[in-house]
């Protein structure tokens, strides 16, 4: 291990756009090949240096990363020789102000090229297996990112070989290798720490620039899409995923809370979506309604050697709980296996404290009696006292999952009541909510007329005369 990350300023700082499976799932796309952008060497900084948020900006986001330090000149090197050109590995933080994302047509120059926006250190690891490195990021002491290099889409050797096909990598150059899920917005006063296991923690405090931004040149500008991307909302880019960045506005949430899952099921069937009801789960608290967007977690069948390798510590289950954001619902694929618990009261409480809107598992629920006093909607397949390691390996998160026989995508809209849970594609959420509320208003009218003694003939469904009566009363209201 070296005592200092770099002896001189790098000639180039190259950053990878998407390179962790969890981040790709969050963004709603998985690239076939790596893509890159450049950061100026003047953005280089160190542990302990403040990171300045410009005046008038709101969306400063961190991205904990592993940086490769090039030690030997690399030009057209093959993949199998690429790592010979690496001097070592260090922690890095790829800061960016999303308020300037609109400015430079994808180059990220003003968003991520500002002075001090590439802190690295505090040390470089030299004698390590790059396939077994672990990256963690903390905000104000709270773990927000935790990923191993086994989750990379493109290995370090491939990145070096790919880049060196068309450009020469020089000693001192840095390659930032991508960030896992968990990146989000930080504010003045927050402290962000990035830890490359074995190399210490890179620590930077966020401060506000007291001076106003000069009036000439590009000014900060924020859209709903950039705001969603900055906060790390699942499938946040509409252009990437075809899904809106914010499927649940306040009006939609209010409407979804007011209607039954039976009505929502009718509306989805009218739109050709028949497979939308999560089967075989029951509510721990039938009195609670649930509305939110999916954050997914996948369990695979137990294999003892795999569980020994990835099932302990901050495994995929615990990391996913620590990544939950307000309004998200944890959806666990347990293959309908009821022979072990998939989540217990402590992790469910942690999810609640992070703002979770609910939990759904088609497997077992551990500590099930405790959930009657937990103010969190939870749906489960069966109670079971055993820990998940009896039947499951927690594998990965923010991937498509099958829960109760239904496909659930990260970012899908979920609504639950005492009857069960329905899955709504985000792009349909607003219109389904609107039409479901209208349907229930009509059905209340029909119910009241039947209660008064009216025949269902011509009333259910309404003929022209009854519809005119209904619309007249509705307009009067």
UniProtKB/TrEMBL annotation:
**What is this protein called in UniProt?**
Fumarylacetoacetate hydrolase family protein
Please name the source species: Sphaerimonospora cavernae
User: Which stretches make up the Fumarylacetoacetase-like C-terminal domain?
Assistant: 12-207
Annotated segments matching region Disordered: 229-249
Keywords (A to Z) from UniProt: Hydrolase, Metal-binding
For whether the record's keyword set contains Nucleus, the answer is: no
What is a GO molecular function of this protein?
A: hydrolase activity
Q: What does the record list as coiled-coil region(s)?
A: none
PANTHER family assigned: ACYLPYRUVASE (PTHR11820), FUMARYLACETOACETATE HYDROLASE FAMILY PROTEIN (AFU_ORTHOLOGUE AFUA_1G02370)-RELATED (PTHR11820:SF112)
Q: Does the keyword Metal-binding apply?
A: yes
């Amino acid at each position: 291990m070296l005592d200092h990350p770099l002896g001189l300023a790098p000639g180039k700082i190259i950053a990878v756009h998407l390179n962790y499976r969890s981040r790709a799932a969050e963004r709603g796309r998985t690239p076939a090949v790596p893509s890159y952008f450049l950061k100026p060497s003047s953005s280089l900084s160190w542990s302990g240096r403040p990171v300045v948020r410009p005046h008038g900006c709101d969306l400063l986001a961190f991205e904990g990363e592993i940086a490769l330090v090039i030690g030997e000149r690399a030009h057209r090197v093959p993949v199998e020789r690429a790592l010979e050109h690496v001097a070592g590995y260090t922690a890095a933080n790829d800061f960016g102000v999303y308020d300037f994302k609109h400015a430079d047509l994808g180059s990220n120059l003003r968003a991520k090229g500002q002075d001090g926006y590439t802190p690295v250190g505090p040390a470089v690891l030299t004698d390590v297996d790059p396939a077994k490195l672990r990256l963690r990021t903390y905000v104000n002491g709270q773990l927000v990112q935790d990923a191993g290099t086994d989750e990379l889409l493109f290995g370090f050797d491939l990145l070096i070989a790919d880049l060196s096909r068309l450009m020469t990598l020089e000693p001192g150059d840095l390659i930032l290798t991508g960030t896992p899920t968990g990146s989000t917005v930080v504010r003045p006063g927050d402290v962000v720490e990035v830890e490359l296991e074995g190399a210490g923690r890179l620590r930077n405090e966020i401060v506000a620039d007291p001076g106003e931004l000069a009036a000439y040149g590009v000014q900060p500008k924020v859209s709903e899409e950039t705001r969603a991307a900055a906060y790390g909302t699942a499938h946040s880019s509409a252009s990437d995923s075809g899904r809106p960045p914010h499927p649940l506005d306040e009006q939609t949430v209010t409407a979804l809370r007011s209607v039954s899952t039976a009505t929502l099921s009718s509306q989805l069937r009218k739109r050709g979506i028949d497979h939308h009801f999560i089967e075989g789960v029951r509510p721990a608290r039938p009195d609670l309604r649930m509305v939110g967007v999916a954050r997914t977690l996948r369990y695979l069948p137990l294999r003892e050697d795999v569980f020994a390798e990835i099932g302990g510590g901050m495994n995929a289950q615990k990391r996913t709980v620590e990544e939950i954001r307000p309004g998200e619902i944890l959806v666990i694929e347990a293959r309908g296996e009821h022979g072990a618990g998939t989540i217990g009261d402590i992790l469910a409480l942690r999810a609640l404290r992070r703002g979770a809107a609910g939990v759904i598992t088609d497997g077992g629920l551990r500590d099930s009696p405790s959930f009657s006093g937990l103010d969190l909607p939870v749906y489960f397949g069966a109670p079971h006292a055993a820990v998940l390691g009896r039947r499951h390996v927690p594998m990965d998160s923010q991937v498509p999952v099958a829960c109760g026989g239904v496909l659930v995508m990260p970012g899908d809209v979920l609504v639950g009541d005492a009857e069960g849970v329905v899955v709504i594609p985000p792009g349909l959420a607003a219109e389904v909510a609107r039409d479901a509320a209208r349907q229930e208003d009509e059905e209340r009218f029909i119910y009241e007329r039947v209660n008064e003694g009216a025949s269902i003939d011509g009333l259910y469904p309404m003929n022209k005369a009854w519809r005119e009566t209904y619309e007249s009363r509705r307009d009067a209201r």
